[in-house]
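Input chain follows. Return structure tokens only.
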Amino acid sequence: MLPVTTCLWFNTEGEEAATFYVSLVPNSRITKVTHYTVETPSPNPVGSVLTVDFELNGQRFQALNGGPEFPFTEAASLVLACDDQEEANRLWETLGTGGEFGPCGWLKDRFGLSWQIYPSELDELFEDPDPQRAAAAMRTMLSQSRIDVAEIKSAMEAAVRT
């Protein structure tokens, strides 16, 4: 069986989006671009981009320019667990510019695709063996828009002192 590939339905901006995404995520590349032909039923002109196959850090995706019928919703999102706070901040700002910032590390990029951006250290904080500290980590994260691990750690320390 071939690897599973996620297909992302765009109106006409699939190539622009794929190019943007691979420029942000290390170990990423565009692997194939196809175009509409006279034989391809299409809402888009012959010669325009039909699909863009790309990889984000080895994960396969396909951008499909299928027309405006199916816009993105928050029901599906891409999750980027970043190596550190600096990388999370960079991706948060870059992906969110021209889009919409949401709660708890969620954002919509300028193409309408939802993302969850956070430093991977966050996972460990939620698994703290002290239930008060873990609860403080969750409460603090739920109050944030861009995830800030230093603020979460501070709240965890304060939970121990009270």
